[in-house]
Write a structure and sequence with these properties.
Layout lengths: L4 H13 L2 H8 L3 H15 L4 E2 L6 E2 L1 H29 L3 E7 L5 H14 L3 E5 L7 H6 L5 E4 L8 E9 L1 E6 L9 E2 L8 E4 L8 H10 L5 E4 L3 H9 L4 E5 H4 L8 E6 L6 E8 L6 H16 L6
Parallel strand pairs: 3-4, 3-5, 8-12, 9-10, 9-11
Antiparallel strand pairs: 1-2, 5-13, 6-13, 7-11, 7-12
Helix pairs in contact: 1-2, 1-4, 2-3, 5-10
Protein name: HTH-type transcriptional regulator MetR
GO molecular function: DNA binding; DNA-binding transcription factor activity
Family: Belongs to the LysR transcriptional regulatory family.
Length: 303
């Protein structure tokens, strides 16, 4: 005996509709074709599946067994078919995000929260502890999107610009530099510089400001939490360079002062790294739009 999904759908439809005519409409075939299909199925299994003299038409004991099988199997098959159609339409998928910067949580969480409302069927996650290996993880398909400030020429990886930001020096309001609008690299030579625990080449203050000038601060101290760093800065225990979007929510703190890096300031760009094959997925495009909008909100001048 060789059962097919169409056989199970036939048994279920006739049971649900109570007869061949309405079942044929449900299955979108002619009543004659359905009658022949039922006859062929009964010949194959060797028993009658329906009590034809009953009105409405009802299942025999053997037919009820097939109905129970249909009720177990068909919902799973239909769920899988719907999921595959959703994948094809870009409604279903996976968006596992890794961040190369500690401070990115400040702006990306609102974008992710909006995203999950628009695409609830997408498997959404933030993969922490990948800051040092995020792009290799993207290439290995362990994550699907990386927030990065350092675009690289990687095979099959697309870097989408999201928004610009300005790395900004924050010092105690009592610091000797506090009254100035900007600083030179050599101004940081005598300072304790507090940074996030990242590779030095990925820290803006070194890659864009101190490194090119070959200036080294007196001491470098690594602290993971932004609020702890700013508490120490306010206490005069060091200075820090952070993205302007991080410092904006502290702009009214009278214990802190903010200065540009160099007279013209430094401008950097946040990118989203995505595998090229997935870039045009509707859910991926939607997230990129949300990320750009959220980034634009962070472009207000820092007071």
């Amino acid at each position: 005996m060789h059962l097919e999904l169409r056989h199970l759908r036939t048994v279920r439809a006739i049971h649900d509709q109570g007869g061949l005519a309405r079942a044929a409409e449900t299955l979108n075939i002619t009543q004659s074709a359905l009658s022949h299909q039922v006859k062929a199925l009964e010949e194959q299994v060797g028993v009658e599946l329906f009590v034809r003299r009953a009105r409405p038409m009802r299942l025999s004991a053997a037919g009820l067994r097939l109905l129970r099988l249909a009720e177990q199997v068909l919902p799973q098959v239909e769920a899988a078919e719907a999921e595959l159609k959703g994948v094809e339409a870009g409604r279903v998928g996976r968006l596992h995000v890794a961040l190369e910067c500690h401070a990115c949580f400040d702006w990306i969480l609102p974008a992710l929260d909006q995203f999950r409302r628009g695409f609830p069927e997408v498997d959404l996650d933030i993969r922490q502890r990948l800051a040092f290996t995020a792009l290799p993880a993207l290439q290995r398909e362990e994550v699907d999107l990386v927030i990065s400030m350092d675009p690289d020429d990687l095979p099959e990886i697309h870097f989408e610009p999201l928004f610009d930001y300005s790395p900004t020096l924050v010092v105690s309001a009592m610091h000797a530099l506090a009254g100035r609008g900007w600083v030179r690299p050599e101004d940081l030579a005598p300072e304790t510089l507090i940074v996030y625990p990242m590779y030095r080449e990925r820290l803006d203050v070194f890659s864009e400001f101190l490194g090119p000038a070959k200036v080294e601060p007196r001491e470098v101290r690594q602290i993971e939490l932004t609020d702890v760093t700013l508490m120490l800065v306010a206490a005069g225990r060091g200075v820090a360079v952070m993205p302007d979007w991080v410092l904006r929510r502290h702009a009214d703190n009278p214990e802190l002062a903010f200065l540009r890096l160099g007279e013209a300031g430094v401008t950097r760009t946040v990118h989203a790294a995505v595998r090229g094959l997935e870039l045009q997925q509707p859910y991926m495009q939607h997230f990129l739009r949300l990320a750009k909008l959220e980034g634009a909100r962070n472009r207000r001048p820092l007071a």
